[in-house]
Amino acid sequence: MTMATASIEQTASGTIMLSASGVSKRFGSTRALVDAALEVRSGEVHGLLGANGAGKSTLSRIVSGHIARDAGEMSYAGSPFAIRSTRDALRAGIALVAQETSLAPEMSVLENIFLPELGRAGRLSYGALRKRAHAILSRLGRDHALPLDAEVRRLSAAQKQLVEIAKALALDASLVIFDEPTASLSPSEVDRLFDIMARLRDDGRGLIFVSHRLEEVFAITDRVTILREGTTVARNLETAQLSQSDIIRHMVGRELDAIYGNREAVRATPSGEIVFEVENLAARPEVRNVSFSVRRGEVLGLGGLVGAGRSEAVEAIFGLRPRDAGTIRIDGKAVDPRTPADAIALGIGLVAEDRRAQNIVPDLTVRENLLLAHIGRHKGFGLGYGQRSRKVTDLLGKLGLPADRLDSNLLNFSGGMQQKVIIARWLLVEPTILILDEPTKGVDIGTRSSIYAILRDIAAEGVAVIVISSDFEELLGVCERVVVVSDGLSIANLPTSVLNEEKLTLLAAPRTSTERNVSLLRSLSAEFGATAFWALVDGDELICLGAASADGAPEIGLAAGEAATGAETAIARAVTEKSEGFVTEPETGLQTLLVPMRNKRGHDLGWIGLTLAAGKAVPDPRDIVERVIARTDAEETTGPNR
Amino acid sequence: MTTSTSPLAGGLGRIAKSLEVRMLGLALVLAVALSLLSPYFLTQNNIFNILDQSVVIGIVAVGMTFVILTGGIDLSVGSVAGLTGIVLGLALQQMPIPLAIGAAVLAGGGIGLVSGVLVAVFGLAPFVVTLGMMAIARSLAYIFSGQTAISAIPYDLSNIVYTVVLGIPANVLFLLALYALAWAYLTYTKGGRTIYAVGSNKEAARAAGLNVLLYSILPYVISGALAAVAITFSIAQILSADPLAGNQMELDAIAAVVIGGASLYGGRGSIIGTLIGVLIMVMIRNGLNLMGVSPFWQGTAIGSIIILALLAERLVNWRSAR
């Protein structure tokens, strides 16, 4: 990620705007804050870090007047902190830019920016407001990014956030809290947000940046304060002096390496026979053509970017959305689950992506949430909890959940524990195929490692496990094989041993060129009775993104989605030489031409290859090169999206 | 872990219970206040009076609880009671009592089935569907009855009210049995827990493989059928089927369920809470009658107590949330 605008300048040690120490806050029986401290100076971006449930949001909500503290010394702008409501906070110049925005969706951008002023007596001058809005936005360098008359509900997440920031500036807020502001932004939008934040800082405002994305913390903050379990464990550390492992050590109190457990052990697990196959699955518009298969005892990753169609694909498999095409086979037999109940009866379990919306039933107890899938499968009239009591006891031990808390409300638990309960819900009904969609989303690092351990255990018991994740490090750490999905197409199927984060990123990047390139391959192969392929070439390694073969065309030892070294293919010499003309292989006589594709900025888009059988008359290489250029010059593909 | 632990002993149970306990407290405070205001209030006779007056509204409130637990509402129960009363009255001319009652209950259940299907299958808003059904049922009641009450009701029907079993009138016994049955169903069966799950988070219930469709429809069927049962007890008492019967009964039933702690968003509430809600409503009305308060003032009194009870509940919740 390039963040030139967010370069870290030496902290101009401004005056202390906000200081807090010994802050505590209790929600019912939960101690959200125990002994929190925070100090924010003017002209700095102050990172407030911590694992989930560490109390970051609680502390920022206290500062912004949303909730009141139970105890603690706080001062703001040199006098004791006397803020009792959000209105007080706004009047004092403290604004919160939250994940879920507090905008009025049916009103215009302009009205939202000046929402706090609309309630004042007297006539509004929209002309004057418009001028002020333009002034504010141009101060942010975003004058043309917002249509002032548009309804807010039509805006993108990034634009809504910009409205929130403009609203804070309309009140001349001097302390602005950004609570996980980048969660729903694309990388370029994040860059723009950081540009705005840098401008606000340079104006002499104080900014609090609440996040657990370390890269972003390094990109924008000047100092950080770290919370762990409601207590400040490190305060006012200079970001420039920190490394990622320093921060993680403070956050979790342990080293990072440990969390994936023994990767080699994962590799060594012998894989059983194929139990679950999905072929040419389509559920338009999100899922266009997805195929994969899983073996007994295997952990398969479905990798890709958010919005690539992975969740939609598994929902289509599970009967949560209609399928347009495709075959699903379990143990070689074609099946047709139309509803989740069908899928469950076939032995499939799904831990859906959105925990709160798709998994948790808030009014039922932990026990009943745990036994929910059991109730779905249970044939009798009663509850039949007795049948599962042993398994429940077993699972509780594994989860580290005390049995006496089975009757409390699941929402009172941390995200990690909630997730473990949901996973356990499926383990109780003993699925043969378990699909987990983003199983560690919103889960703290400590709990993650125990979820990984659970996944390994399940696989070791012979369950076929499918993990969807946008976190490539996680996929590489947990899975034996990864199927990459991009733009609704499964484009690669590779063992993790040949993958790394960079390669996955490369494969997962949505390519608007995919369909055009594949049609080029088809026409080339048909025209010359040849095999045509499209591959990324990295030194001696090839990753094939697409291939087409005419009848009787030669085998080159490389299929779409596969990775191989040049030597493993039938066109080793051509890969080594990368010559401008056709290269003839010494033993087989295959004749291969490799043509590089580059976009206008010179970014490598991979190579187009054309292999003809031995002795066949070859076309003029320049013709082929021109056709490839004609194909690629038309548009720039997006680069790796990370 | 003991699997015999009732889910009611659990967290939900605790919430519901604490709420039930508070409402039970309110009921007791009311009882004490009313007995101070009227010496007749706490007599055995009057207590049976209160229970007797609870029967009709209490039966309807059970169905309403089922519907509200799924996040729906049934505005048609009053009109369905009116219509099925007429069905019963007409059927009694043709067939023996049990069959006639069966016909009325079937008619009520059938109307509920239509509402349930419109809500669950076609995704229409329960408020609108049952509002429409309310108008249809009332209009049919007038048409079938020829706009007059049917008073040729066989006297034997009154046996279902006045037969005394174990010292308790049959209608009160039926009410208590119905509540016990409904409580057991909602607490200890797959269907009951599914109704809670559907109301609490339909998406999650579907994803867990629960039969969301069936248990979204069933409550409306139960509600319609129980409206018919309720009006049967009412007709058995007055030996007349009036097309106007059951007017505004839905409001009393909803009020009782809400006083009993159920959330109109679904997923939260209990049958015992509803029983307490019914008793509170009936006690107030009974007490006011004993004190000779004008019936025109009773609406104000009952409405105020409903609002104050919920307001107090909300204030308590706010304090514990802060």
What report would you give on this structure?
The complex is a heterodimer of chains A (642) and B (322). Chain A is α/β, with parallel strands linked by helices. Chain A has 23 helices and 26 strands. Chain A folds into 3 domains: 15-255, P-loop containing nucleotide triphosphate hydrolases (Rossmann fold); 260-506, Rossmann fold; 511-633, GAF domain (Beta-Lactamase). Chain A is 33% helix and 26% strand. In chain A, strands 6-7-8-3-9-10 form a 6-stranded mixed β-sheet, with helices on both faces. In chain A, strands 16-17-18-13-19-20 form a 6-stranded mixed β-sheet, with helices on both faces. In chain A, strands 23-22-21-26-25-24 form a 6-stranded antiparallel β-sheet. In chain A, strand 19 and strand 20 form a beta hairpin. In chain A, helix 16 (389-399) runs antiparallel to helix 17 (415-428) and helix 17 runs parallel beside helix 18 (445-460). Mean pLDDT of chain A is 82; it is low at 1-12, 262-269 and 634-642. With 322 residues, chain B is mostly helical. Chain B has a single domain (8-317), classed as ABC transporter involved in vitamin B12 uptake, BtuC (Orthogonal Bundle), CATH 1.10.3470. In chain B, strand 1 and strand 2 form a beta hairpin. The radius of gyration of chain B is 20 Å and the shape is globular. The chains are: A alpha/beta (642), B mainly alpha (322). The A-B interface holds A 27-28, 67-68, 318, 320, 339-341, 343-345, 350, 352, 357-368, 372-373, 375-378, 380-386, 389, 392-393, 396, 403, 406-409, 425 and B 1, 3, 5, 7, 9-15, 188-191, 193-194, 196-197, 199-201, 203-211, 267-268, 320-322. Chain A: It comes from Arsenicitalea aurantiaca. Chain A: GO terms for molecular function: ATP binding; ATP hydrolysis activity.
